[in-house]
Specification:
The chain is an alpha/beta fold. The chain folds into 3 domains: 153 residues, Rossmann fold, CATH 3.40.50; 80 residues, no CATH class; 58 residues. The chain has 11 helices and 9 strands. The strands form 2 sheets. A 6-stranded mixed β-sheet has the order 5-6-7-3-8-9, sandwiched between helices. Strands 2-1-4 form a 3-stranded antiparallel β-sheet, with no helix packed on it. Strand 6, helix 8 and strand 7 form a beta-alpha-beta unit. Helix 4 runs antiparallel to helix 5 and helix 10 runs antiparallel to helix 11. It is elongated and about 110 Å long.
């Protein structure tokens, strides 16, 4: 079609126009990046002193962490600590008991429930392609304007200007590749080409979950919230998903019990434990090493504190036996010293045993 040829011309011309701009950057300088591409400018998501309770049951309290615009965060903790509840708070489905969640202006947060397959009459391909509704509408508008121009009706100058604007936006937003991305994503998660025309009403629960996951991945969100995304996926599909997420230009928070998946994708780990959160730089294996080192240091300090308390208690007992006024004052002072030590003591608890991560090799699970 004429407008497609015109589109390709504009694409080449836009590249040519960039040449002098690239040369104008002075030596040692870097071109300015938009906020979403600048490291350290401001976090995409900031969780500050967040608490959540249901009646008398407190899930977590005083939770704080940040997600930068390119962070890939593994959210871990034993079942029931509030990981999915945290997702619902971030999405605005639940109000926290206390605390604040702040996001970068204009941040688009994506999660699975937004992309449920609710149109049973659509084919698998049509359902996934529906996430590109704006591009499809733009494509339709370009075709209409092109036909109008071909028939020389209306204000041609205004029509051509509008056509040019739409075509440039269409190209910028990925209009030239959205159909190929749709097909590639479907095959990546294990759908065969002969299944593309199958109605979504005929899909199993596992297949519907995979299709919803794909809709989320292609939705154009800046921050993805992924809750056990490897469920229902075989080895090849997990490998495709890992590659997609590693190449993803935005941020994400992933709930998963698959340590190999987390090691492959994430660069930061947030653990919810005993109603608190701790943030570690690195993937799951890095987290384990740092957590073990932290717990060992905590254990050593706890043992040393106990020894110190026992030593001071011996002094107190000795002072009490002498039972003079000066000795009593000394005993009271030493007791205050013990109280100060006890107030800052943290008892080790071996809490990692509550997390059940998968360590076994992956096995093929089929298309369900």
């Amino acid at each position: 079609m004429l407008w497609i040829i015109y589109l390709l011309f504009l694409s080449v011309w836009s590249k040519i126009k960039e040449f002098p701009k690239m040369g104008s950057v002075s030596a040692g300088a870097s071109p300015a990046l938009p906020i979403s591409e600048r490291g350290g400018m401001m976090p995409a998501l900031s969780v500050s002193k967040l608490s959540m309770s249901f009646g008398e049951r407190t899930l977590f309290e005083d939770m704080s962490f940040e997600v930068e615009s390119r962070d890939k965060v593994g959210l871990i903790g034993r079942n029931g600590v509030g990981k999915t509840t945290l997702f619902k708070i971030i999405c605005g489905e639940l109000e926290p008991t206390d605390g604040v969640i702040a996001t970068e202006r204009g941040l688009n947060i994506g999660y699975m429930e937004q992309h449920a397959c609710s149109h049973g009459e659509r084919s698998i391909y049509e359902e996934l392609e529906s996430v590109f509704g704006a591009l499809k509408q733009m494509e339709h508008d370009i075709e209409k304007i092109t036909i109008t121009i071909e028939h020389s009706t209306g204000d041609l100058t205004e029509l051509i200007a509008r056509q040019t604007e739409l075509i440039e936006r269409f190209e910028r937003d990925g209009g030239l590749t959205y159909k190929s991305r749709t097909r590639s994503a479907l095959t990546g998660l294990g759908f065969r080409e002969e299944e593309f025309d199958m109605p979504t009403s005929a899909l199993s629960g596992g297949q519907r979950s995979k299709l919803s996951l794909l809709k989320l991945l292609l939705s154009g969100s800046d921050l993805l919230l992924l809750d056990e995304p490897t469920n229902h996926l075989d080895i090849a599909s997990v490998a495709w998903l890992e590659g997609f997420l590693r190449d993803f230009k935005g941020a994400m928070i992933i709930i998963s019990h698959d340590r190999y998946f987390l090691d492959s994708v994430t660069n930061k780990t947030v653990e919810i434990e005993h109603k608190k959160s701790m943030t570690y730089k690195g993937a799951y294996s890095d987290f384990i090493k740092k957590k073990q080192a932290y717990e060992k240091a905590l254990e050593n300090k706890y043992k040393n504190d106990l020894k110190e308390i026992q030593r001071i208690e011996g002094i107190i007992e000795q002072q009490k036996r002498w039972n003079r006024e000066r000795n009593i004052r000394t005993a009271e002072s030493k007791q205050k010293e013990i109280d100060r030590i006890k107030a800052q003591m943290v008892e080790p608890d071996g809490a990692l045993e509550g997390i059940r991560m998968r360590f076994e090799p992956r096995h093929e699970s089929g298309n369900d």
